[in-house]
Amino acid sequence: MIVARPHLSRRSLLTAGGAAAVALGASAASPSAAAAPADNPVDTPTEALRRLQAGNRRFTSGHGRHPHQGLTDLHRLAAGQHPFAITVGCADSRVAPEVLFDQGLGDLFDNRVAGNIVDDLLLGSVEFAMEEFGSLLIVVLGHERCGAITATIDAIHTGGTAPGHIGTIVDALRPIVEPVLDQPGDPLENGVRANIAAQVRALSARSTIIAEKVHEGALRVVGARYDLDNGRVELVA
Q1: pTM of the entire structure?
Q2: Which of 73, 80, 164, 210 is the most buried (most CB within 10 A)?
Q3: Cβ atoms within 10 A of the Cβ of 10, count?
C-alpha cells in the first residue's frame, strides 16, 4: 500500500501501529494509572554511552533496575518512541541488549542478525531510526564464541560450504575473518574482534547519513564485545 501513497510521511509508518496498540491496551489500563517516570533525557552521544555502561555494571553486579518494562510503560510508548541508542547485534539468544544494558521499553532500537552483519537492509533500518528518532549512539555488539564466526572458520578450514542460506552469512564474513586466522591468539576470538571493527567501519563508510552525523558530533559509533561468562560488555572499536 505504501507504493500507492507517494506522500506517505516517515511518521505514518508508526502511526497506524501506535493507534492499534492504544486501542488494544485501553481496556486493560486502569483509568487512574499514571505513566511511569522516565529517566532523565539523554542529550549527547557521550551521555548515551555512559547510560549503557552504567546499565551493564548494574546487570553484572546483580543490581539491575529493569526500568520501565511494565504494561503502563507500553501504553505510554504506544503514541511514540524515542530510543536514545541503536544496537547492531547478533541474533544469539544470549545477547539481548535490553537485558545486558539494563534498559527498558523505548530505550534501544535493536537490529539483530547472526554475525551482526551490516547489509543494505540493516543499514536502512539504522538510518531510519536516526532520521526518525534522533538516536545519538550506534553500538555494534559482538560476542565471544559467536556461532556465525565459528561456521565461517569451519568453512574456510574445510573448503566446504554452509547449507542453505547460512552460506550467505559465511560469504559475508569470510573476507573479514580469513585475514586474521593466522594471527597470534585464538582464531575465533580474533575473528569476533575483527568483525566488530569491520562492521563499525562499514556503518560510516556505506552511509553518508551516518558519516555526516558523526562528523557533526551528533552521533557516535562504537564497537563492543559481550563476554558470555561474566556478562561484561567492553568497548573494542
Answers
A1: 0.82
A2: 210
A3: 9
